[in-house]
Amino acid sequence: MLTRRHFIATATALFSSPIATPVFASSHMEDQWATWDALVTPAGYDAATTNPWGLQPRLLPTRVEARAGLVPGDIHVDAVARYLYHIQFDGTAMRYGVAIGRSGLYEPGTYTIKRKVKWPIWTPTQSMIEREPELYAKYADGMEPGPANALGSRALYLFVGDRDTYLRIHGTPLPRSIGNRASSGCVRMVMPHINSLFDQVETGVTAYLYPAEEGRLTTS
Question: Which of 54, 65, 100, 138 is deepest in the core (most CB within 10 A)?
């Protein structure tokens, strides 16, 4: 059974430049993506300090020391503290604030990231439409990409084996939800934060989503 461990200890607040991962698309698409990226990225953006969203400072990107033995490249989501950790090769991790699924909708487990998409199309699942038709029925055929899209600027797709779970780690047009239980099951991030994470994450890595009911970490 997957359990949540005390696997991260705080270190200095640093943020390294992301390593670009090639994404192939037409020049028209790339121009549109660049335009949208500019719209959702505050002027003079600095990951460690920029905060027009009013987040708690602890939810801004921070470099921390990772517990020994964690696999570089993997992602760990502490659902209680609302942190996502991306493990680095130097024994540190980049920590980001996230929102998780509302009570009863969050699904802890071990997943593989098998797909990455810039500015994705979003389609609600049938269960979402049945649960809240007044919110989701109008998007049954999909919501076009853009700054108002529910998946935001980037999405990492979580699989179990070859099965798409329809769970995502994604950007959100509702940044004030970060730090809360707010989604229909996915892990949400501020768009500029996931833009940096996206460029560093490779497909095939493991994402661990820890239970939301266990005790809080003793270090921030």
Answer: 100
pLDDT tens per residue, range 101-117:
988 889 999 999 999 99
Domain membership of residue 186 as a residue range: 8-209
Tens digits of residue pLDDT in 181-210: 998 889 999 999 999 999 999 999 999 999
> Is the residue at 215 inside a domain?
no
CA distance to 19, 42, 205, per residue, from 157 (Å): 20, 26, 11
The one-letter code for the residue type at 18 is P
CA-CA distance, 139 to 109, in Å (whole number)? 28
Q: The domain spanning residue 32 has which CATH number?
A: 2.40.440.10
**CB distance 217 to 8 below 8 Å:** yes
Measure Cα distances from 207 to 39, 85, 193 in Å.
29, 10, 17
> For the chain, how far is it from start to end, CA to CA, in angstroms?
25
In a domain, 216, yes or no: no
CA angle, 166 as apex, 64 and 146 as ends, to 5°? 80
Strand, coil or helix: 59: helix
Per DSSP, the three-state class of 197 is helix
Determine, yes or no, domain membership for 2.
no
**Upper half-sphere CA count for residue 27 (Cβ side, 13 Å):** 0
How far is Cα 11 from Cα 2, in angstroms, rounded to an integer?
26
